[in-house]
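Could you help me review a protein record that somebody else here produced? Do not assume that whoever made the record got everything right. The record follows directly below this note.
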Amino acid sequence: MRRAFRRLGTTLMAAVLLCTSWAVTTAQPAAALDPTVGYLMAHFTGESATGEQIYLAHSTDGLRWTDLNNGSPVLLSTVGTRGVRDPALVRSPAGDRYWIVATDLRIASGTSWSDAANRGSTSLVVWESTDLVNWSAPRLLNVAAGISGAGNAWAPEAIWNAATNDYVVYWATNSLRDGVTKHRIWYVRTSDFRTFTAPQLYINRGSGQGIIDTQIIEVPNSTGGYRYYRASADGHITIEGSNSVLGSWTTLGNLSHMGISNGTGGGNVVEGPMWAQFNGRNEWALWLDQYATGRGYMPITSTNLGSVQNFRTRTDYAMGGSRKRHGSILNITAAEQSRVLGKWGSTLPVNRIQSYNFQDRYVRHANYDVRIDPNVSPAQDAQFRVRPGLAGASGTVSFESVNYPGYYLRHYGFDFQLASNDGSGTFAGDATFRQVAGLANSSWASFQSYNYPDRYIRHYSYVLRLDTIPDATARNDATFRLTS
């Protein structure tokens, strides 16, 4: 990506003005009720076919990361541009609700950076959850609609603000203001990530200097002299401190003394600053994406954020199998970690489903239809993970797409399609099958419908159907083999 446009993101909301005085309440930290023991990172991977979606990684020490869900995305955007970047993980102060807010942008669809910045989506994409593993359908919140001439809404973040008893959602918008078109940081307030105040200008660097990426962290006991610290990619990586999210900020310096900049200072050119505190101690990591060299994220750490001179480089880290682009890190409790690893931590093999009577052909999805084809491209269209049957019956299986996680092979009107699991009993039944000895060859396999046990998966003119099996031709068509 170009330096000015590299870091993208999104957060949320649709319009309603909260017109009240900003009453100050007793300051309470926005933290989960139980101690945190692990770390969850949300990120995207790049401009590949499925790279601009939501990926998760887990760490036990805050430095070494393991990709979850076998390195595949865990959530797919089906709204707006159908792609997301720069996800922010947000937890309520009580730890009973979560949101993911992300940029509505898919460069892989052929969108140019100029179009994305000047004529792009002004909405953020939002998912909501009560347990961190079961998420709502994505929704669009047009936060930048109230900004005159807004060209986009990128790199959203959100932080709980105890002073106003709601969340401050902030992001970058490119627009003309005071005769200069550039990216500035704007914010809205919201209590539910559905309704929000009118957008207000938050950060505006001098002259023509734009700013896209900024992230705030709250620190306990105002370590270093401030309750909040802000890192921004604004030509440098500028560090600021404040005791109020919406108050004045003090510039503490940048990272030029470490040979790190966002372009203006040369050296190691980075973007996407991402904060995380280490569990159980007063030490913080600032992760920086080395996009200019393609080396991905690196951490620098500090035990006192009050001075930029306290940062130290680290080499004892590992980023896992996938390249991680601008995201966020959430410190998670033991209960949260158990749920997350229970859903996405296990490693299931990737399988293909080979036809018995056309052995150069494999089951694949194409535009959500399902058929058997030779030489499948991209290869992931013919790759599935065989999961326990969604209907819950012992000995049954369901087939989840590798490149469309959460999408399963299911029959509808006895035709097959790749469809998103809507959580209903009907979907679970339609997507569940019993693996039995192959009807044409017992060393192979056939797949009997769970809710129509007189019917089996078979191909007919290369298209997958759910049929009764009256003759030898049908038995051949209904016989398959799971291969690597």
Q: What stands out?
A: Residues 295 and 309 are 24 Å apart (CA to CA). The domain at 14-344 is CATH 2.115.10.20 (Tachylectin-2; Chain A).
